[in-house]
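Task card 7
Instruction: Convert sequence to structure tokens.
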Amino acid sequence: MPLGKKDLIELMDRYQIKPSKSLGQNFVIDPNTIHKIIRDAKIESGDQILEIGPGFGSLTCELAKFGKVVAIEYDRFLLEGLSEIMTRHGVEENIEIIHADAMKIPWNEFFSQREGIWKMVSNLPYNIASPLLITVLEQAPQIDEIFVMVQKEVAERFAATPGTNGCGIPSVKSQYWSEVSVIGKVSPAVFYPTPRVDSALLHFKRRTTPMTVNVSTFNEIVRKAFAHRRKMLRKSLGRGIEQSTFTDANVDSRSRPEELSIKNWVDLANGLDLEKKNKLNSSQ
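Output:
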């Protein structure tokens, strides 16, 4: 049985721990929510699972009943209590705890020692959710699917489609690498302490073959364009791109960044790289 609110408070009192606002700690305490995540993620026997921010292990221990879990926890004050809960549930042999900052993990090195296909399943700390998800999508191709609880507003930004106000850097970058969907809303009542915002379960399914592009160029023009999202692209991207490059990419230079599809961004980035190559060749 997952750790409930009463047991969690008793454990925190015993270890003299208070949830950290600066670390975005809101621990999931509702068994139904935990079991729904596992069902939605289709966790099966033998799956390799990465969890960021296990807290006291309510979700961790349930995941470990199905497969091998590697859980990365930054807060050293939680580790002893987490170990106790793992032992209480008899799943410690299926869980590897890494005390580290997930934002500083060198993912190439991490997965060089852990082969195969992985799923990431987490109740993500609010303060790192957006940058961490982008980093994992860009740097950890071994993770085939991601199921995470995040703030509802964050989930909606990632899943936003072109032409909507929510479309921005998170949606463009994440949807280049994956198919993104919001599975459902999560009530504040399933967490302790209770947050003041709704959450949502967010799903990423990695694309088998992303469109060919220089990712550095892609990221750079997306960043520049959305830094001035109210401006037309010919203004926000400045002199960096010729009108002919917009035309060849079938992109209207008068468009605002939220109006472009992922293919538009890819074609524009590829066109810019070709433009630079042609200028270099003509100068030689």
